[in-house]
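Practice problem: predict the structure.
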Amino acid sequence: GLDVLTHAIEAYVSTAATPLTDVQAKNALSLVSKYLRPSVASKTNEEAKEAMAMASLQAGLAFSNAILGAAHAISHAIGGKLPISHGEINAVLLPYVMDFNFIAAPERFSDIAEIMGFDLRGMTAREAGNASIQFVRDLASDIGAPQRLRDVGITEDMIDWAGQLALIDACMITNPRDVNLEQVKTLLKNAL
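Answer:
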């Protein structure tokens, strides 16, 4: 579910996003925001399960055309070398990458906050961005996802190779903010 959320958010802020991918990403984001908690809470909640399946499909349609961003680039680097769940890595990385990318697409992050259910009246773009980031953190916590990279077995000595591999991942090309090795390493250290 948090991988689906990452797909939707990264596709929406991607430099290759289009009106067609935006519709899919926004629909997926809305569904995950509403149905991930109840889907995790109950094995028999068919409405929530169907909504999450639709969210996964729509996020997939969005990212297969808009591509993704830094969270997936880093997740691919780590998951390609270590037997760690892709979704768990994304669950940890997403709020850090959202915060990093905010300055490249503040209006997009305001949209994300609104889709998540926040009333943006009186909020600055930064406040809306912070609200969306906190929403992701709270959602991950509520469903029992890991909060730090160390919770999934990442250690500080892995940061250099993970950062180098992430920079050459195709998903980094469509990240809304330019990223260098030091910035990737800082993201990883902050998430550790």
